[in-house]
Write a structure and sequence with these properties.
By secondary structure, the protein is of the alpha/beta class. The chain has one domain. The chain has 13 helices and eight strands. GO terms for molecular function: hexosyltransferase activity.
Amino acid sequence: MKDKVSILGVPFSKLTLAETTSLLDGHIAGGQGGLFHLITANPEITLASQSDGRLREIICSADLIVPDGIGIVMAARRQGDPIPERVTGYDLLLSLLAKGNERGWSFYFLGTDEVTSGQAVERIALRYPQVKIAGRHHGFFTADEEPGIIAGIQQAGPDILILAMGAPYSDKWLYKHKEALSGVKVVFGVGGSLDVISGKVKPAPAIWKKLNLEWAHRLLFAPVAKGQKSRWRRQSALPKFVYLTMIRK
């Protein structure tokens, strides 16, 4: 399809942030389309999908995959089928909150730690007063607590479910419970975006963003959640991603 480009077999959207927001706006307004699963994928996730069959299955079933990383944009450019811009989970979340403030959408936030979750939702409520907070829950729940959380989301029936449990865990969790959460209209993972909104992590300065070096800012300054691989180990996947995209060009 002309609005997508395949990178290592992953069909990335070529829509801009504004176009992606408009697409989701239409889906929510339609009300009859079922759950729309959007994935924000970077080079690390793309590379992981090459050896993780379950992740590959999830990616193939997603409704839209947006390029959350300058490496994806550069790979598309090398293939001669350019992507106009990155669409990061953080930017998409802010764009949908702004649109939701106009439309009166409801959001449910699942993930990060309890304190950060509470602080992020408080700030969102202040900044976007017309957004309805359908509910929230931290991401450090047990298997025994999970059914209650799913029941709570079902009862809340949010327009948008935001997952902040890290990638690819967020997408794997959603895929496992996709049928139970079919009443939700849009769902996607936002990585550490709630950490930034809460003030726990400082956003990258404008100059870092302009130079597409947000990944370097995170690498140097952002804390790593308990149980996650170090950022240095995760970034070591980038040279392999570049190599594979070049030899498969």
